[in-house]
Amino acid sequence: MKGSLNPIYINSTIQVLEKRCLVLLSEVYNVIKSKNLISVDWVEEDISKELINCLKSNRNRIAWKIRVEPEHRLYKADNLSASKSPRIDFCFSTWTDTEWEFFAEAKNLVESDCDTNRMGKNGKISINANSLCKRYIRTGIDNILSGKYPSNGCLIGYILQGKAENIISALNSCLYNLNRESERLNQQSFGLIDFESCYISTHNSPSLMKHLMFDFTSNTV
């Protein structure tokens, strides 16, 4: 049909944008980690803010002309009011003859239950490790599978305490308990420089989901 884009061109463009976004995320993660800023006291939004600010000055992002928007509202042709539409943590976009997008959603993760220095109504706020694993699945993986979040994206785990491999095991145990063992996370190289904590999970639709685990535990006192 006149004016339509070649599927091969579409796939190659999406793949290039995805790879570049994964490169950008791994680059700014390494920069933030080297600053020794992040601890178990940090909430997700504040960690994402650090990454966004670092992305703004990233030379590759500027050279590739990729725009990044935090807390992007996902509007759809539905009956939801604008204020009820879901948000996703990162929206990357670029233009050729059309607009292309890639998304990322981040979740805090810890290996074991721990206390923070953040104060709540009843004193210091505690973190439950199992609850965070279940939340990663329920509001991360499942939001993509349900279509609430776009499938052209990835999930990011902000690891604030414990070992990454043990947290992956805990996530896979949660999936097993939900009779979803086939969806377990498996480590796989994404071809990123100086970043190896990459995982994929297999589902019906989308068939593959990418996961990046940003380990900030060495900065935790």
Structure commentary:
By secondary structure, the chain is α+β, with helices and mostly antiparallel strands. 35% of the residues lie in helices and 29% in strands. Strand 2 and strand 3 form a beta hairpin. The chain starts with 6 loop residues before the first helix and ends in a 6-residue tail after the last strand.
Low-confidence stretches: none
How large, in whole angstroms, is the Cα Rg? 18 Å
Secondary-structure class:
alpha+beta
Overall 3D shape: globular
What helical percentage do the residues reach? 25-40%
Q: How many distinct helices?
A: 5
Biggest sheet, spatial arrangement of strands = 1-2-3-6-9-8-7
Taken as a percent bin, the fraction of beta residues is: 25-35%
Give the biggest beta sheet. Answer: 7 strands, mixed
| Number of E-state strands | 9
Mean pLDDT: 92
Instruction: Report, as a whole number of angstroms, the end-to-end distance.
Output: 60 Å
Order of helices and strands: HHHEEEEEHEHEEE
Blueprint (SSEs and pairs):
Layout lengths: L6 H28 L9 H13 L2 H6 L2 E7 L13 E9 L3 E12 L3 E7 L2 E5 L1 H17 L7 E9 L2 H14 L8 E2 L10 E5 L5 E8 L6
Parallel strand pairs: 3-6, 6-9
Antiparallel strand pairs: 1-2, 2-3, 4-5, 7-8, 8-9
Helix pairs in contact: 1-2, 4-5
